[in-house]
Amino acid sequence: MDIPYILNVLGEDEYTDVNPVAPPIYQTSNFFFRTVEEFRNAITSEKEYWIYSRGNNPTVNLLCRKIAALEHADEALAFGSGMAAISAAILSNVATGDHIICVRNPYSWTDTLLNRNLLPRFGINVSMVDGTHSENIQNAITPKTRLIYLESPNSWTFELQDLAEIAKIAKAAGIVTAIDNSYSTPLYQNPIDLGIDLVVHTASKYLGGHSDTVAGICCGSSELIDKIFKNEFLTLGGIIAPQNAWLLLRGLRTLPVRMERISNSAEKVLDFLLGHEKIEKVFYPNHPSHPQHELARKQMKRGSGLITFQTKTTDIQKIEAFCNSLKYWKMAVSWGGYESLIIPSCTFVRPGLYSEIPSNFIRISIGLEDPEFLTQDLERGFELL
Ligand SMILES: *Cc1c(COP(=O)(O)O)cnc(C)c1O
Asked: If you measure from the C-alpha of residue 185 to the centroid of ligand 1, how many angstroms do you get, rounded to a whole number?
């Protein structure tokens, strides 16, 4: 299926006979039946019938079909946040006594789920490994390993994992693989084609694309998605509202143009940053300066809009002055909307608190503005560094 077909044709004529050009929002909690027989029949399968919107809703369903098609997956489920999707994907594959391998420095709340607030309470063991070398993953496998959780690239330093190689290792050992593919979007990387089992996304970033929705996606084979649907999805109930699913459907239609603009602008901003006298180091996966650039070329189509740089100065006051002076860049968490954003690591790295990230790192998210304005703004600010 080609992308334009997926984005504005697939599934769009199914639930209506009035031919709307934009898909309808089915803002309903439940669906009625005309006969007891119909009702009795439907209740045997939450997934196949319209019964209750914690299970199935036409607007949400349309979104899922499109994202599954974009990720080359059998099926997808949409959740109320990226973390709800990630939690469901992980919980679905483990029980007490099991072991998970996760790549180091994943998204911060994924780390919290695995190592602090939740899984430790249920006796699930986690090994955090450097995934830049696949043999580290191979060596961490135990007879209890049930899940290998990847994030390629991860945020901040954009470390990659060789997805095809790790999928092969996992398959040989009968272990499920899952990846957070939020950075690349389904347009730039399709892990299922490389043998990965489950793909999760925060849809709050590029998929939604307008900084107005928090949502998540999990896709994979019918077998794995069915298991998540019956257990974590229906029982934990972390669903997305129809209105928010519709915002994502609208966001998806412009995903290809937004990503092209963002990646082109990112390359311009990257050129400006590389070799700048105030900058020590720049991190971007799809550039020859990245240590895994070859792997990035092999498994990703392009880099998206996140860039991290390390300033030469370690003086936090100067870094603060630089950030405070910016006119176009907004200081905020998250990324993927119209607005270019900036987040200095000194907001969360504190003296005396160990962090893998030094306090003079700054991560920027390139938005849709003219990149000339963005680099001029940075240049003005760099005078304060
Ligand atoms: C934001 C983010 C998440 C979490 O998604 P939410 O929608 O905020 O719950 C997960 N992974 C990555 C890489 C993220 O950037």
From this structure: 12
Rounded Cα distance, 173 and 176, in Å: 9
Rounded to the nearest whole angstrom, what is the distance from the C-alpha of residue 228 to the centroid of ligand 1? 19
CATH of the domain at 339: 3.90.1150.10
Give the domain extent around 260: 255-382
Q: Which atom of ligand 1 is nearest to the CA of 183?
A: 13
**Residue 94: Cβ-neighbour burial (10 angstroms; 0-12, 13-18, 19+):** buried
Residues 188 and 42 in one domain: yes
Domain boundary among 227, 253, 279: 253
Give 77's strand partners. Answer: 218
The encoded tokens of residue 118 equal 């939740």
Phi/psi for 123 (5° steps) reads 70, 40
User: With a threshold of 0.90, does the pTM exceed it?
Assistant: yes
Among 157, 198, 205, say which to mutate for ligand 1: greatest number of ligand atoms within 8 Å of CB. 205
Q: Assess whether 181 and 329 both reside in one domain.
A: no
Q: Which tens digit of pLDDT belongs to each residue from 192-227?
A: 999 999 999 999 999 999 999 999 999 999 999 999
Same domain, 208 and 275: no
